[in-house]
Amino acid sequence: MKKIRKQHLQLRNQVEQVFAERDIMSFADNPFVVSLCCTFETKKCLCMVMEYVEGGDVATLLKHIGGPLPLDLARMYFAETVLALEYLHNYGIVHRDLKPDK
């Protein structure tokens, strides 16, 4: 679940960006793009409940391994990332925040 403080969004003028992210995750139908289950809000936060991805993210895996990924595993994650980006680009969407913890 992704929790976003409303105050933080307003200070950085990012409300539209969060709604765009929600819309993209709602329509995306690709095995390499995390789908959105539902959204809700509390007094202080906007919340996005996303599908569970077994194994977690690459940043957690790197910490667990304690060093660089083996080449075959790095190639696999890179290929999956490229396929996800290609899918999004076909819809005119550019992902601007790629990093191992996403």
UniProtKB/TrEMBL annotation:
GO terms for molecular function: ATP binding; protein serine/threonine kinase activity. It holds the Pfam family Pkinase. SMART domains: S_TKc. InterPro entries: Kinase-like_dom_sf, Prot_kinase_dom, Ser_Thr_kinase_AGC. Residues 1-102 form the Protein kinase domain. Its EC number is 2.7.11.1. It comes from the Eukaryota. Keywords: ATP-binding, Kinase, Nucleotide-binding, Serine/threonine-protein kinase, Transferase. It catalyses: L-threonyl-[protein] + ATP = O-phospho-L-threonyl-[protein] + ADP + H(+); L-seryl-[protein] + ATP = O-phospho-L-seryl-[protein] + ADP + H(+). One of its GO terms (biological process) is intracellular signal transduction. This is non-specific serine/threonine protein kinase.
